[in-house]
Amino acid sequence: MKTTFRAMLAASALTFLILPTMAQAGLSTDEAGAPQTAQSSAPWNDANRGVLKTALADRERHGLDHIMFLPDDADQGSDTVVEKAYTQAALAYAQALAQGVVDPASLHDVYTISRPTADLGDALSNALRDGVLEQWLGGLAPSDDEYQKLSDAYLATNRDTATQVPRIALTKSIHVGDTNPQVPEIANQLVDDGYLTKGTADASSGVYSQDIADAVRALQRDYGIRVDGIVGPDTLGVLTLRPGDQARTLAVGLERRRWLSRTPPATRIDVNTATAELRYFRNGQQIDQRKVIVGEPDRETPALGSPIYRLVANPTWTVPKSISVSSSTVRAKNMHRVNGYWVQPSGPDNALGLVKFDMRNNQAIYLHDTAAPELFDRSQRHLSHGCVRVADALGFAQMLADQEGVGEAWTKAHESGNYQFVDLPREIPVRLLYHNAFVSPDGRVSIRTDPYGWNDAVATKLGFADAQTRHAKAEAIDIGP
């Protein structure tokens, strides 16, 4: 066995034997972790082959069971052909665990969230040589509690899917007053999606009550379905209550977490644009959670990793050219022209509210207050032109300022009523994520709707059948960013 890893990969001409291949996933040889310096041959003896086969047999745990990494005939052919097949499969699986099957930058025009890096080629060579392939592969995927719970949920849901027993069998639509054993599950999903308050409706009897129907009507309105409060196929499709839909969503959720750094900043702000919620972590502990309003479909809030570097008190708002402004709005908002742009002066009616959180990025995306706080009461909060509106933004700004030692300066700037900047002594990282499968504060795995329809492309790369998710339908609320 004198063939090196480099020679084997070159001989393959990067034509990998898995679906989807790394090339299909938009990954270069370097991104895929193929070795650039390893020169030792891969000792694919019987023991190491067995370890890889065992690891691949357990790939369902990571939502990767729809991908064939190792061909059925991998053990046939010359030593060189066999080594090539095992090397490609091992590198592809390692890549999937360590960084994800697909590069998210290939799916989005903008994706700047930090991803893991690894020299998988050299590491694979060492693991094979030292007989620790099992331990090496076992340490590549995320090991946090949330990933584990999503993994367990995927395994359980996959078992339901395999039995071909739908969790909700719609022999006919469900109307108010009907009794159906699946009504409790419908109610639970509506609670997860924010359309129904837990305890508002007692669904334990299986009776489809008016309270539940009203929640369904709100969901239908948001997703462009006929607003009749009746649970039919279209409504069920949005609720993602069928086992196949849930398994698909959970697999995508696992993949999205493999894209993320295993050691995120201990102090950071994570905005989940799928659920329109913000979580603030300080020194590794979550200390705050609040609602946000994010970009509407077709004006999606991009997937950015971008820090807050200063607070802006009493901001003005320069309306971008992409937002049209009527003459009546100009008068009502007291706008004036500056260098060809409409500018709204500071004040409580300003579209940015009374505080803006300036972030370092070239997309003009930032967090800010709002003059329309009543919109936070909505279940579907994908209503902005791309920026992130924060509930009680003034309280959040005061919290950050106090903790960063500039509380007095911030209070003075805010109370002045004037447009002023307060620099933070250190930047606070912000990640704009999209996770519609997640672990809720009570420890349950929750699945929400896919308002941007971003799961479809990822699911296809993971080997799931192509599908078209129904997007949320934002209403024209205001002209704010």
Low-pLDDT stretches are 1-42
What's the count of strands? 15
Give Rg in angstroms: 25 Å
Please give the largest β-sheet: 10 strands, mixed
Calculate the terminal CA-CA distance, rounded to whole Å. Answer: 62 Å
Strand content: 5-15%
The dominant shape is globular
SSE string, helices as H and strands as E = HHHHHHHHHHEEEEEHEEEEEEHHEEEEH
Query: What's the total helix number?
Result: 14
Describe the structure.
The protein has 481 residues and is α+β, with helices and mostly antiparallel strands. The chain has helices spanning 5-12, 46-57, 79-98, 120-130, 133-138, 145-162, 183-192, 210-222, 233-239, 243-258, 327-332, 393-403, 407-416, 455-461; strands at residues 268-272, 277-282, 285-295, 308-313, 317-318, 336-338, 341-344, 355-359, 367-368, 382-384, 388-390, 420-428, 430-433, 437-439, 445-447. Helices cover 32% and strands 14% of the residues. The strands form 3 sheets. Strands 1, 2, 3, 4, 8, 9, 10, 11, 12 and 13 form a 10-stranded mixed sheet that branches. Strands 5-7-6 form a 3-stranded antiparallel sheet, with no helix packed on it. Strands 14-15 form a two-stranded antiparallel ribbon. A hairpin with a 7-residue loop joins strand 8 (355-359) and strand 9. The longest helix has 20 residues, at 79-98. The protein starts with a helix and ends in a 20-residue tail after the last helix. 43% of the residues are buried. Mean pLDDT is 87; it is low at 1-42.
